[in-house]
Design goal:
The structure holds two protein chains of two kinds.
Chain A: H1 22-35, E1 43-47, E2 62-65, H2 71-81, E3 86-92, H3 93-99, H4 104-110, E4 115-120, E5 123-124, E6 130-131, H5 155-161, E7 166-171, H6 175-187, E8 192-197, H7 207-213, E9 214-216, H8 226-234, E10 239-246, H9 253-263, H10 269-277
Parallel strand pairs in A: 1-2, 1-3, 3-4, 4-8, 7-8, 9-10
Antiparallel strand pairs in A: 5-6, 7-10
Helix pairs in contact in A: 1-6, 5-8
Chain B: E1 3-7, H1 8-18, E2 23-26, H2 33-45, E3 49-52, H3 56-68, E4 73-77, H4 79-94, E5 99-105, H5 121-125, E6 136-138, H6 143-160, E7 163-169, H7 170-174, E8 176-180, H8 214-234, E9 238-241, E10 248-251, H9 254-269, E11 274-279, E12 281-283, H10 287-296, E13 299-304, H11 310-318, E14 324-328, H12 337-352
Parallel strand pairs in B: 2-3, 2-4, 4-5, 5-7, 6-7, 10-11, 10-13, 13-14
Antiparallel strand pairs in B: 1-8, 6-12, 9-11
Helix pairs in contact in B: 1-2, 1-6, 3-4, 9-12, 10-11
Classes of the chains: A alpha/beta, B alpha/beta.
């Protein structure tokens, strides 16, 4: 490997709490960049709002800290504005599944060619610990003193149902596997969703819980088999790690856009004049 | 009731509870989240409705829905969340249901920061989103006034079936001071006649902001404008400090208005005859009184934690009767007493020429 992960880190020191799961994500993503020998100036990372959305500041790449819940539309615009960039959307579970939840199905429908990494800590960390869309039912916090009553979302099952062409789960306690998943997500020609179980050490420390219940996907899991992926996603007592599903055959949106352009009648002086000649 | 040491966000939330708040919908955002947290406990203790929504867009539409059922309903937020709510607020205004929204303003534009600011003035005062409408905008300068304005906000919202904003800032939400909460009021036993309470023995009501024809929508708009004219006539509120003998006037609201009381005292010690007008309603604006005072004083100094948004309303009210100077701080910085004093002296010299 001729590039080092550290070459993708900016001089800005992360302000995350010591022990935050997001450090492992930062390390894994920069390792994935290095393994693919991406040039720094060819990468752009877009985020929303929340602790994990501070991410772009810690990278020596292009980056944008966007609007709460909107990293996917933002990244879509970037990718279509400059398709030669490697664009990565990042954010947290509140940003992505709550206020931004309406954007995920449409990124999946379009198969926009970029990975979306959600650092899922099952809590609103930045606003000091309110329940999030993936908090376990019954979680007692300052804004849920009698226990939250909503069922947690199942992000893997949800994105599979949306037709996402690459769906994976990683865990901050297993950074090597995470780096490999990110590498595969970056290579995938289409929308790649990666849920990272990334515990919030301060408001919802789930390291021990996830260490206990995280397992690799069953041996022989066929990532081309959507039903097998959904069956594995339905399992919540065990949290499987790895690539649940991938379909590299679907055209990414930037290719579809090019096909549309090819199909559209071209505006030349002649074709414009033709309209008046008739 | 006795005075207690209260944090602004908790104070307005508890004041709402005691004023008969029946439903609250909100979304976490600094510097306002303590209100949401307080209500998550209190509303359920009292068998009322609390829900943490999935976004401010969701929260304001839940508020809209609850308001249609005739309950006392409120949400609270800060700048970025308020921007998101404007779509729903326009619908709420257009369909005439009473709603109270607290905005603890923070530094903008964009994500800005979580420091106190007054830069949402134009957004709150000059419109409620798309279309022609104004919300009643209350501007408290301390925690006691914040508490008192919660009850007023509900009363005005219901009296006029309109949107009422409480325009605070991050410092008002985050600071603690001693203040007195109102006694617990009983909840209303009946819901208003226009609400969705069934149409037994009467014609069904329609709550809507949709009027497809141009003339019907113009007629609806004229009806709304008539209501706004009544509010302008009856609900202007402001406080004056030592204006009787003043020949210089400061105009400031909220936290800056409070700072200006110190400026005024200091200026008077130094021989300047300074008065202060502090608007308590930003809409309707105390324009008529300001116009009178503009005929009495030699000059006016406006201060805001913004680049000068209320300034435009002051200039319109003054209508050229006297010079108007401005001193604003941006991005969450407070104007300090000494810098405002220096601005007053500068104004004094300029108008003495």
């Amino acid at each position: 490997m001729s590039r080092k992960a550290s070459e993708y880190r900016s001089h800005v020191k992360p302000i995350w709490c010591p022990g935050c799961g997001d450090y492992a994500v930062l390390n894994a993503l920069t390792r994935a960049f290095a393994s693919l020998e991406l040039r720094n100036e060819n990468i752009m990372v877009a985020s929303g709002i929340g602790c994990s959305s501070r991410f772009p500041a810690f990278l020596k790449t292009y980056g944008i800290h966007g609007v709460h819940g909107r990293p996917l539309p933002l990244a879509t615009g970037i990718k279509l504005g400059n398709p030669s960039l490697t664009v990565v959307a990042v954010g947290g579970d509140g940003d992505g599944f709550s206020i931004g939840g309406g954007h995920i199905p449409h990124a999946a429908r379009r198969n926009i060619d970029l990975p979306y990494i959600v650092m899922d800590n099952n809590i609103y960390g930045m606003t000091k610990g309110q329940p999030s869309p993936t908090s376990p039912r019954g979680l007692q916090r300052k804004a849920s003193p009698y226990g939250s009553q909503e069922r947690p979302l199942n992000p893997i099952l949800m994105t599979l149902a949306y037709g996402t062409t690459f769906v994976a789960r990683a865990f901050s306690g297993q950074p090597k596997q995470m780096a490999d998943i990110f590498r595969q997500a970056l290579l995938h020609p289409g929308f790649a969703f990666v849920q990272v179980l990334s515990p919030c050490i301060t408001f919802h420390n789930t390291y021990d819980h996830y260490r206990e219940i995280c397992r690799p996907l069953p041996e022989g899991h066929n990532a081309q088999d959507l039903q097998a992926a959904m069956t594995a996603a339905l399992e919540t007592e065990t949290q499987y790690l790895g690539i649940f599903y991938r379909d590299d055959q679907q055209l990414p949106y930037s290719r579809r856009l090019q096909l549309l352009r090819d199909r559209a009648p071209k505006l030349t002086l002649e074709t414009v004049l033709d309209r008046f000649r008739r | 009731m006795a005075k207690e040491l209260l944090k602004g966000n908790v104070a307005f939330a508890e004041a709402a509870v005691r004023n008969g708040l029946q439903a609250y919908f909100g979304y976490p955002i600094t510097p306002q989240s303590e209100a949401l947290e307080h209500l998550s406990k209190r509303m359920l203790e009292l068998d009322r409705v609390f829900l943490q929504a999935e976004s401010e867009v969701a929260a304001i539409n839940m508020v809209y829905g609850a308001a249609c059922t005739g309950v006392r309903v409120m949400t609270s937020t800060s700048g970025p969340g308020f921007s998101l709510m404007t779509e729903g607020l326009s619908y709420i205004a257009g369909s005439e249901v009473p709603v109270v929204v607290v905005n603890m303003m923070r530094g903008g534009p964009g994500l800005g920061n979580i420091q106190p600011a007054q830069a949402d003035y134009a957004l709150m005062v000059h419109t409620v989103g798309h279309g022609d409408f104004h919300a009643i905008v209350l501007a408290p300068a301390n925690i006691q006034e914040l508490i008192d304005m919660v009850g007023l906000a509900f009363d005005l919202a219901e009296k006029y079936r309109t949107v009422v904003y409480i325009a605070g800032d991050g410092s008002l939400g985050q600071m603690m001071e001693s203040a007195e909460l109102p006694p617990m009021k009983p909840l209303p036993t009946e819901r208003p006649a226009w609400a969705t309470i069934g149409a037994k023995d009467r014609e069904p009501n329609a709550i809507t902001s949709l009027f497809l024809g141009a003339e019907p929508l113009e007629a609806w708009n004229l009806h709304l404008q008539k209501k706004l004219a009544q509010i302008k006539e009856n609900e202007v509120r402001w406080q004056e400090y030592q204006t009787e003998d003043a020949d210089l006037l400061m105009v400031a609201y909220g936290t800056v208005g409070r700072i200006c009381t110190s400026v005024m005292r200091e200026a008077r010690k130094q021989g300047l005859r300074v008065g202060l007008l502090r608007p308590q309603t930003l809409w309707p604006f105390p324009a008529a009184r300001l116009n009178e005072l503009a005929g009495q004083v030699r000059g006016i100094l406006v201060s805001e934690m913004s680049a000068g948004q209320m300034l435009a309303d002051v200039e319109r009210a003054v209508a050229g009767k006297c010079p108007v100077a401005f001193h604003g701080r941006l991005g969450g910085v407070f104007p300090m007493v000494d810098e405002l004093l220096a601005e007053l002296k500068k104004l004094d010299q300029e108008v003495s020429k």
